[in-house]
């Protein structure tokens, strides 16, 4: 079954795309949690972090390089940004197609305790 992200990759539903190459797509999150909130996804469907294989190492590295590139382009690299990848239901994953959340443009805090 196609995920929301598969539909975005296939242009079946719209998204505000900020980067694309043959392996990666990045677009603005529709419910941003920070001034910059971009989702960076592989075009290859991989459901969760648990499903990444040795064959995916270069692709997963490309996701991170893409996020860093977008952070520089958005002017948030020097002050800092957060990259988050959730895994499965208890980890907060709601779309089962791996994706990095690139968030920045504000100070983040870490919960105490």
From TrEMBL:
<dbReference type="Pfam" id="PF01230">
    <property type="entry name" value="HIT"/>
</dbReference>
<dbReference type="InterPro" id="IPR011146">
    <property type="entry name" value="HIT-like"/>
</dbReference>
<feature type="active site" description="Tele-AMP-histidine intermediate">
    <location>
        <position position="99"/>
    </location>
</feature>
<dbReference type="InterPro" id="IPR036265">
    <property type="entry name" value="HIT-like_sf"/>
</dbReference>
<feature type="short sequence motif" description="Histidine triad motif">
    <location>
        <begin position="97"/>
        <end position="101"/>
    </location>
</feature>
<dbReference type="InterPro" id="IPR001310">
    <property type="entry name" value="Histidine_triad_HIT"/>
</dbReference>
<protein>
    <submittedName>
        <fullName>Histidine triad (HIT) family protein</fullName>
    </submittedName>
</protein>
<dbReference type="InterPro" id="IPR019808">
    <property type="entry name" value="Histidine_triad_CS"/>
</dbReference>
<feature type="domain" description="HIT">
    <location>
        <begin position="4"/>
        <end position="113"/>
    </location>
</feature>
<dbReference type="GO" id="GO:0003824">
    <property type="term" value="F:catalytic activity"/>
</dbReference>
């Amino acid at each position: 079954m196609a995920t929301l992200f598969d539909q975005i990759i296939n242009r079946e539903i719209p998204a505000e795309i900020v980067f694309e190459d043959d392996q990666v797509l990045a677009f603005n999150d529709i419910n941003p949690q920070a001034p910059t909130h971009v989702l960076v996804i592989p075009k290859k469907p991989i459901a969760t972090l648990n499903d990444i294989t040795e064959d995916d190492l270069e692709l997963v590295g490309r996701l991170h390089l893409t996020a860093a590139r977008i952070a520089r382009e958005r002017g948030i690299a020097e002050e800092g940004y957060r990259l988050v990848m959730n895994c499965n239901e208890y980890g907060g994953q709601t779309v089962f197609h791996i994706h990095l959340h690139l968030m920045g443009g504000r100070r983040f805090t870490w919960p105490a305790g």
